[in-house]
Amino acid sequence: MTEASVLFLRACLALLAMPIYLLSFLGIWEPFCRKIFFPYFLEKFSAVHERKTKKQKQELFRNLPDFTSPSGELKLLEIGTGCGANFQFYPPGCKVTCTDINPNFQRGLSRSMNKNQHVHYEHFLVAAGEDLHQVPSGSVDAVICTLVLCSVHSVNGTLKEVLRVLRPGGAFYFLEHVAADHSSWKYFWQQICYPTWKLVFDGCCLTREIWKNLEQANFSELKLQHISVALPWTPIQPHIIGYAVK
Hints:
The chain is an alpha/beta fold.
């Protein structure tokens, strides 16, 4: 598993994906990806990922009502809402603010909203995880972020914003794919796929060790578990799941 073999196999993969690299060079791929391909792909992938992680998500979000504010309201902020795959797990009557950097998920998002009318949808903000300035400090009880920290520009910047918008005692819930163990074949293939995967899937990074960012952030409590999600023939099987308290 030498660096030379990684570079050689990366080049082979890039050759296979040459039409996409060419479209990217011409400035065509990125707008097409963000507007058409990625929203379509994410809706289909979310359905598969949902089936594989439903039990883990039910367990993860089970204690969301524990973070209801003293006023009796439960205000949630979701970073990178996408097609709204998490709505079904939210407690009845909670108030959700949805954010995403890509505004092109409306079709899938509308379907999820119509299916999950037990939730009150307050706002949809076009915003990056690192810049949630439209959300007042200390104004939400819980922040949810699933399969998003792989593609933000700065994981630390996003976690800083999470801590800012959470009220004291509020919680941050996460489920993210991460780098595999460095001595494993999975990590070897993650390194090979990395550049092409990032281009094709709108900036998704395969080798982030997001648990380290969470451990170094200023949370008072961190419940984190490493799990493997059964997604055969993909480089995104290793995941972390859990929540952290401000």
